Amino acid sequence: MSLLRFRRRMSEPSRTVLHADAIDWLRDHPLQAGCSVVASMPDVSEWGVTLAAWKPRFKEAARLCLRATPPDGVTVFFQTDARAEGRWVGKGGLVLGVAAELGVPLLWHKIVLQRPPNTSLHARAGYSHLLAFSRAVTIPGSHASPDVLPDRGMIPWSHSMGTRAAVRAMRDIRAFAPATHTIVQPFCGIGTALVIANRFGFHALGIEWNRRRAEQARTLTMDEIRAADGERLERRQRRGPRHKKSEPQTP
Length: 251
Ligand SMILES: C[S@@+](CC[C@H](N)C(=O)[O-])C[C@H]1O[C@@H](n2cnc3c(N)ncnc32)[C@H](O)[C@@H]1O
Fold this sequence. Notes:
binds S-adenosylmethionine, single chain, eight-stranded mixed sheet, 9 helices, Rossmann fold, two-stranded antiparallel sheet, alpha/beta
């Protein structure tokens, strides 16, 4: 192998996915300088617990992500509010509360639309929160980016963060957190954000406790994301709209 090819291969961004409990892992592994964290933490339904049991666990996961991020790194959360036990579960608010408690400043708060405005959904919000925090990184107003994203981008799985949301996060990490060389993604699912991190030249470390998803995340490619997203859209078109548009009734 030529020296040039060897050097290129050595500098290729790596991807490692651990099959492990992300909460235990974050507790046991303080992150080194050069890491930023991107997380989409599990919903009440994914942990199969009551709302009362889920909430402190969710907040502890947010706390661990924020604490694990070095001061010159960024912590990004992608969270979708939901309905559980007849109540609204405001995950964006919970994450903001934890960051305020730890004194980690908010860099930006974006809304990512999941459905067109004026659509009623039964179990989840039609939007997600994309939130970025950092202790030392700042972004000048002259470099502001849109606050409302029209959709998640391509999603190979219904729970995925989506390529557009991930690109938004990586772009700002690359531009404003130059010390970052590795993106750590606890609860990485099938690894959409890890693929995007690699495309931005970052090494990527995912942690996922579902063995099958962890395996998928190790090898997921952009072509597979594109194909799975296309199949998902086709299925949706065949099924027709499942959610009705709401028209407020005049009292
Ligand atoms: C909201 S999904 C994340 C989806 C991911 N952002 C993507 O784009 O594919 C949450 C993921 O966390 C995983 N998970 C739940 N509890 C976990 C834990 N304690 N440790 C590691 N992974 C966990 C679930 O298996 C699920 O894949």
